[in-house]
From TrEMBL:
Domain Acyl-ACP thioesterase N-terminal hotdog: 94-229
PANTHER family: ACYL-[ACYL-CARRIER-PROTEIN] HYDROLASE, OLEOYL-ACYL CARRIER PROTEIN THIOESTERASE 1, CHLOROPLASTIC
Entry similarity comment: Belongs to the acyl-ACP thioesterase family.
Keywords in alphabetical order: Chloroplast, Fatty acid biosynthesis, Fatty acid metabolism, Hydrolase, Lipid biosynthesis, Lipid metabolism, Plastid, Transit peptide
GO MF annotations in UniProt: acyl carrier activity; fatty acyl-[ACP] hydrolase activity
Function: Plays an essential role in chain termination during de novo fatty acid synthesis.
Record CDD domains: 4HBT
Protein name: Acyl-[acyl-carrier-protein] hydrolase
UniProt-listed Enzyme Commission number(s): 3.1.2.-
Domain Acyl-ACP thioesterase-like C-terminal positions: 253-322
Main location: plastid
Length: 403
C-alpha cells in the first residue's frame, strides 16, 4: 500500500480591524475549555495556522487517490483541535470534547431534544473521537488493524441516564472516552452538559465487542488492535455499575405488542443492518400514548442479542414493570414520615390509581424486539426503560444549576 500526500487550500477570513494577527491564531486563542482545570492544550500551531494543510492518505486505488478519501480528509496522525466539528482533545490528551448547538430538527413539540437525537449525538461524537485519534481507516469507526483483520465494532450493551433534556438552541458540551472491558471488549462513556451552567444533562455508558465482518461471528481482539487503542484507555466511568442489571425476557403474552415492523432503507447502516437508534424508536412506539403524554424517559438499558437485517420483520413487545413500581413505592414509603405514609396509602385505597399516587417514583417498562419467523422468533434486543413525570416549564426554570 502506497502513501501519497496532497494539499487542500483553506480559506482565510480577513479582518478589517487594526489587529494584524493571523485570524487562525485569533480563533485558536478563543477556544474555551469548560469544566476542567486550566491547562495548556497541545496544538500543532504550524499545522493549525498555515494557509494550506498537507494530509497523508493511507490508501490508493490503482495509483490514484480516491475522491472519497479527498472529500473525507481522514487524518493519519493524532489531532488536538478540529475547527469544523468544534472538537478538542482534553484531559491527558485522551478525552474528546465537542461543542454542539441543539438544532430545531432535533427537538420535539415541547422544544426539548428527543432521546433519538441524544443517541445520534452519542454516535457522532464517538466516531469523531476515532477520527481525531488518527487511527480511523476506511471502516465505519474501525482502526487500521481492524480493517486488516476484517473486524468491525458491535455494541453489546448500552445504558443512558437523562436528568434533563437540552432545549432548542442550547449549547451543550459532549465528552466521550474509552476504557477496557474485559480481555476482548471496550467500554465507551459519555457526559452531556450545559456549556453555560455546567449542569450534566445526561450520562451514558456502552460495551463494544469485535465481530468478523464476513462470518458475522464475534472475535477476540488481535494484539495489533489492542496496541492501537489501549493508549486511549482511561479508568473513568460516567455511570457506576457494581453489577449490571439483567433484563428478563418477555413472552408473547406481553401486555403491549406491535407487529409487522419493517426496516426502511434509511434505517440501515453501512453494513445493511438496522441502526441502533431505530431499535429505540420501535420500543417507544409500543408504549401507550396516554402514558407518554404525562411521563418522560429518564433512563434506558439495552442488551443486544443479534443483528436485524433489511429482510427481517420485527415484533416489538413491552410490559409495565409493576413489581418494580410497587417495590419503589414501598421503599419510598419506608423513608416517609408516618403522615406521608398514611397519605400515600389513602390515595391507593381510594382508587386514585398507582400512577396517580406515585408521581415522584420512577416507572419502568420491560421491552423485547424479536424477528418474526415462520418456525420461531429470535431475540434482537432486550430493553428496560425508566420514566418520571414530565416537568412543567415553570418547574424547569426554577431548577438550581451548579455553576
Amino acid at each position: 500500500m502506497a502513501s501519497f500526500s496532497y494539499t487542500i487550500p483553506l480559506p482565510l477570513r480577513c479582518s478589517t480591524g487594526s489587529n494584524n494577527q493571523d485570524p487562525k491564531k485569533q480563533n485558536l486563542n478563543k477556544i474555551k475549555i469548560t469544566g476542567t482545570p486550566t491547562r495548556s492544550v497541545k496544538v500543532d500551531i504550524l499545522s493549525q495556522t498555515a494557509v494550506a494543510v498537507t494530509t497523508s492518505v493511507a490508501s490508493v486505488e490503482n495509483g490514484h487517490i480516491s475522491k472519497e478519501l479527498i472529500r473525507q480528509n481522514i487524518p493519519t496522525k493524532k489531532q488536538f483541535v478540529d475547527y469544523h466539528r468544534q472538537g478538542l482533545i482534553v484531559e491527558d490528551d485522551v478525552v474528546y470534547r465537542q461543542t454542539v448547538v441543539i438544532r430545531s430538527y432535533e427537538v420535539g413539540a415541547d422544544k426539548t431534544a428527543t432521546l433519538e437525537s441524544i443517541l445520534n449525538l452519542l454516535q457522532e461524537t464517538a466516531l469523531n473521537h476515532v477520527w481525531m485519534s488518527g487511527l480511523l481507516s476506511n471502516g465505519f469507526g474501525a482502526t487500521h488493524g481492524m480493517v486488516k483483520n476484517n473486524l468491525i465494532w458491535v455494541v453489546s450493551r448500552m445504558q443512558v441516564q437523562v436528568d434533563q433534556y437540552p432545549i432548542w438552541g442550547e449549547i451543550v458540551e459532549i465528552d466521550t472516552w474509552v476504557g477496557a472491558s474485559g480481555k476482548n471488549g471496550m467500554r465507551r462513556d459519555w457526559l452531556i452538559r450545559s456549556q453555560a451552567t455546567g449542569h450534566v444533562f445526561a450520562r451514558a455508558t456502552s460495551t463494544w465487542v469485535m465481530m468478523n465482518e464476513n462470518t458475522r461471528r464475534l472475535s477476540k481482539m488481535p494484539e495489533e488492535v489492542r496496541a492501537e487503542i489501549s493508549p486511549w484507555f482511561i479508568e473513568k466511568q460516567a455511570i457506576q455499575e457494581d453489577v449490571p442489571e439483567k433484563i428478563s425476557k418477555l413472552d408473547s403474552k406481553a401486555k403491549y405488542v406491535n407487529s409487522n415492523l419493517k426496516p426502511k432503507r434509511s434505517d440501515l447502516d453501512m453494513n445493511q443492518h438496522v441502526n441502533n437508534v431505530k431499535y429505540v424508536r420501535w420500543m417507544l412506539e409500543t408504549i401507550p400514548d396516554q402514558f407518554l403524554e404525562s411521563q418522560q424517559l429518564s433512563g434506558i438499558i439495552l442488551e443486544y442479542r443479534r443483528e436485524c437485517g433489511s429482510s427481517n420483520t420485527v415484533q416489538s413487545l413491552c410490559e409495565p414493570d409493576e413489581d418494580g413500581i410497587l417495590n419503589s413505592a414501598l421503599n419510598q414509603n419506608n423513608d416517609m414520615s408516618p403522615l406521608n405514609r398514611f397519605s400515600l396509602a389513602s390515595e391507593i385505597m381510594e382508587g386514585n390509581g398507582l400512577i396517580g399516587s406515585l408521581d415522584n417514583v420512577p416507572l419502568k417498562y420491560t421491552h423485547l424486539l424479536q424477528t418474526q419467523g415462520e418456525t420461531q422468533n429470535e431475540e434482537i434486543v432486550r430493553g428496560k426503560t425508566i420514566w418520571k413525570k414530565k416537568q412543567s416549564n415553570i418547574e424547569l426554570s426554577n431548577m438550581p444549576f451548579p455553576i
